[in-house]
Structure formats: structure tokens, C-alpha cells
Design goal:
It comes from Christiangramia antarctica. The protein has 157 residues and is α+β, with helices and mostly antiparallel strands. The chain has 2 domains: 54 residues; 93 residues, no CATH class. It is built from 7 helices and 5 strands. The chain has a 5-stranded antiparallel β-sheet, with helices on both faces. A hairpin with a 3-residue loop joins strand 2 and strand 3.
Length: 157
């Protein structure tokens, strides 16, 4: 398994897609029940293959990720060949940017000495999707990139 198995809830949401997946392998509903009952290891393998296919499809479309902690924000733009990072760190430990008031403070004090902004670019060496998945496993969320675009303009000014 390359990524992670989908959760029970995710499988339930993707019920029709899973049926279609089984159908592409000429497995009927009856045959699937039989496989689950008599060959659970094969059923497990099919669930893993389906999970990887779904993850691969999702990861192929990812262009932006965000990861927040109390005093840091990591904004990623991911292209075919590289991963760009804008990192914002608030040095005032009383500020929690995961709260509305903390984020408002950050917006008002972006150029303050208590705010460090870093940028970095990393060339993707081997497997783009595996790099993205690792960031998601660490807590990053897939986004449309609004924050990245905003801060990219701030950094360029």
C-alpha cells in the first residue's frame, strides 16, 4: 500500500465508486460477499488498491496545502516539479494564530518584528504525490491557495 486505507466513512461516501472499481475487475456484488467471507486477505488487498487509486486521483490535483499551528503557518504551492513554501512564524507566544483574534493580530502586525516570514523552494526529486501525502499526514490541508496567493504578494512587495 502506497498511501493509507480510506476510513470506513470515506468508503461509505465512495460506495458507488467502489462498486464501479469492483465492476472493472468483473467482480459482482455476490462475488464480493463471497471474497469477504472466504478470502478476507484478498478483500483487504482490494480495499488497499482502491484506497491508493482514490488517493492518487486526489493528490494529482493538489496545488496548495496549508498547515497551521499556534504560532506558525506553512503555506505550500505545489507544481509538477517543485514545492514552494511561505512560512510565517509569530514570535509572541501569547498570540495563537489558529484563533480569530490571533489571526486578526497577525493581519494587523504582519510587518512587525515579532513576525518572521520565510520562503523556500524545493525541487521534487522522486514522487510528488508521496511528498504531498506526507504533508497531509502531518496535518496539512488541501486548499484553493487563497492564503498562499495573498502572502505571495506580501512577500514580493
Amino acid at each position: 500500500m502506497k498511501y493509507a486505507r480510506l476510513t470506513k466513512e470515506q468508503f461509505e461516501e465512495m460506495h458507488q465508486e467502489f462498486i464501479n472499481f469492483l465492476a472493472t475487475q468483473s467482480i459482482t456484488a455476490e462475488e464480493w460477499k463471497e471474497i469477504k467471507a472466504s478470502k478476507p486477505e484478498i478483500a483487504e488487498k482490494e480495499l488497499d488498491i482502491f484506497s491508493d487509486l482514490i488517493w492518487e486521483g486526489v493528490l494529482n490535483k493538489v496545488e496548495y496545502l496549508e498547515h497551521f499551528s499556534q504560532n506558525q503557518m506553512f503555506l505550500f504551492q505545489i507544481t509538477e516539479n517543485d514545492m514552494k513554501l511561505i512560512a510565517i512564524k509569530v514570535l509572541n507566544e501569547d498570540i495563537d494564530i489558529t484563533t480569530r483574534s490571533g489571526y486578526t493580530w497577525l493581519q494587523k502586525n504582519l510587518m512587525d518584528d515579532l513576525v518572521d516570514i520565510y520562503t523556500s523552494t524545493k525541487t521534487i526529486q522522486e514522487d510528488r504525490n508521496k511528498d504531498i501525502f506526507a504533508l497531509i499526514q502531518q496535518g496539512a490541508n488541501i486548499t484553493k491557495g487563497d492564503l498562499y496567493t495573498y502572502f505571495e504578494e506580501v512577500v514580493q512587495d
